[in-house]
Specification:
alpha+beta; 6 helices
C-alpha cells in the first residue's frame, strides 16, 4: 500500500496526544473558572470582615462553610433536623411540588434517594452488551417490577435516555456515583477494576424500595 505523502508519520500519535491534552485541560479550566466565579461572589465577605478586598479568602470561607454543613448533616442531630425539615416541606401546599421534584433528582447523602444515588449496569436491546447508568433503586409497581434507569451520554452526562428495565436484569455496581461520572467524562479512559471483576449484585426483591 502506497503511503499518502501528505500524511504526517506520527499523525495518529499527535491526534491522541492532542485529545489527551483536551481531556486534561477541560477539568482544569472548569475548576479555575469555578474558583474565579466563587472568588468574585465572595469578595463581599472580606469587605465585611476586613473592610478591604482580599483574594481567595472568601473561597476558603465558602469551602469551610460547606465542610461544616456536611459535618452537621451527616451527624445524628443533623439527620434529625433534615428529616424534620423534609416533613415540613412535604406538607406545604405550594412548596411541596417544587421540593418533591428537586428531591427526586438530587443526589442525597446516604445513597437512598435521587436518580444518581446508585450506579447500575443494564443490558442493551440486543442483550450482548451492557450500559452504565444510574437509578434511585425505587421499584415501579407492575408485573414484572421495573426500575427507571438513566443512561447518560458520554462525555456529557447531562443528556441521555430513560429506560424502564426489569429489576431482575439490573445489576448494582459496587462503585460510587463519583467514580461512574469519571468513567463517563473520560469516555472510558478511566475504568475502575471492579467493572471487569464481576463485583456486582442483582437487584433482588428486598434490595429496592417501593415508589411513592
Amino acid at each position: 500500500m502506497n503511503e499518502d505523502p501528505h500524511d504526517f508519520p506520527n499523525q495518529g500519535k499527535i491526534r491522541r496526544t492532542f485529545v489527551a491534552g483536551i481531556f486534561a485541560s477541560v477539568p482544569l479550566a472548569v475548576t479555575i473558572l469555578i474558583i474565579w466565579w466563587v472568588d468574585q461572589k465572595t469578595r463581599v465577605i472580606t469587605y465585611w470582615l476586613f473592610h478591604r478586598s482580599i483574594p481567595f479568602v472568601g473561597v476558603l470561607i465558602a469551602v469551610a462553610a460547606i465542610y461544616v454543613t456536611g459535618m452537621i448533616t451527616s451527624s445524628l442531630v443533623g439527620r434529625f433536623f433534615l428529616r424534620l425539615l423534609d416533613n415540613i416541606l412535604m406538607h406545604l401546599p405550594v412548596v411541596r411540588q417544587l421540593y418533591l421534584g428537586w428531591k427526586q433528582i438530587a443526589l442525597t447523602p446516604g445513597g437512598t434517594e435521587g436518580t444518581f444515588s446508585r450506579v447500575v449496569m443494564v443490558p442493551d436491546e440486543t442483550g450482548q452488551m451492557h450500559m452504565l447508568g444510574f437509578t434511585s433503586g425505587r421499584v415501579l409497581e407492575g408485573d414484572p417490577p421495573r426500575l427507571c434507569v438513566f443512561i447518560p451520554s458520554a462525555p456529557n452526562p447531562i443528556t441521555g435516555r430513560l429506560f424502564f428495565i426489569e429489576a431482575a436484569k439490573c445489576e448494582i455496581l459496587q462503585m460510587t456515583p463519583e467514580e461512574a461520572f469519571k468513567v463517563i467524562l473520560s469516555t472510558g479512559n478511566y475504568i475502575p477494576p471492579l467493572i471487569g471483576s464481576g463485583e456486582t449484585k442483582p437487584l433482588r426483591a428486598g434490595a429496592y424500595t417501593s415508589g411513592s
